[in-house]
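Standup notes
- DV: blocked on the single-chain target, sequence here:
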Amino acid sequence: MVTVYSTTWCGYCDRLKKQLDRENIAYTEVDIETDPEAAQTVMKANGGNQVVPTVIFSDGTAMTNPGVLRIKQHLAKTA
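- DV (later): unblocked, structure below
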């Protein structure tokens, strides 16, 4: 499972979600501006910064502003 932490105004977030859709990679989207716990999760993954998109995988690993290729590679290793 992939969770994409994003905001409504983030162009990088929109691009990543379109790439994930194109590659048929299922994900859950969480808006950090409407979910304080999500904002804390992102800050924890990014040294106290609210950087989006932040992707967190079911194994607990996180990537900040990754490309879809990195996500596919990670999913292939953990499948």
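- Follow-up: The two ends are 10 Å apart (CA to CA).
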